[in-house]
Amino acid sequence: MAAFIGGFTSTMQADFVARTLSPYLCPENSTAEIITFQTTSRDEFGTELPATGYEMQCVDVNGNIVKAPSPYYAFYWVGLLAAGSLVVSGLLALLFAAPIGALITRLVRRNQKTNTF
């Protein structure tokens, strides 16, 4: 689910992702901006289809490119969301596993006591 959300938001909410990752991927005194360009992709039959490409570049205050455009921001974003989802799922498992396990143990013991002759 995190990979789907990360892939979706890396293009649809590209400016938010760029602002979030800019301090980590861009040199000092530069900011990230997303550039788009027309490209093509192939479907399962090999037919070329029009597509939009997304890349992040780092620019300084004068508008000069200080780091070349690259699509790596999307990979970092998806990885960050995947790692975050693993942490959240681990915490939820610990939070709910112990109480639910204790409840099941009580129910099983209660049934065993009422079924003994």
Describe this structure in words.
- This protein is α+β, with helices and mostly antiparallel strands.
- It is built from three helices and three strands; from the N terminus they run ααβββα.
- Strands 1-2-3 form a three-stranded antiparallel β-sheet, covered by helices on one side.
- Helix 2 packs across helix 3 (72-115).
- The chain is elongated and about 80 Å long.
- The model has no long low-confidence stretch (mean pLDDT 87).
How is the topology of this model organized?
Elements: H1 2-12, H2 14-25, E1 30-42, E2 48-60, E3 65-70, H3 72-115
Antiparallel strand pairs: 1-2, 2-3
Which key phrases capture this entry?
alpha+beta, 3 helices, three-stranded antiparallel β-sheet, elongated, 117 residues
Task: Provide a short characterization of the protein structure.
With 117 residues, the chain is an alpha+beta fold.
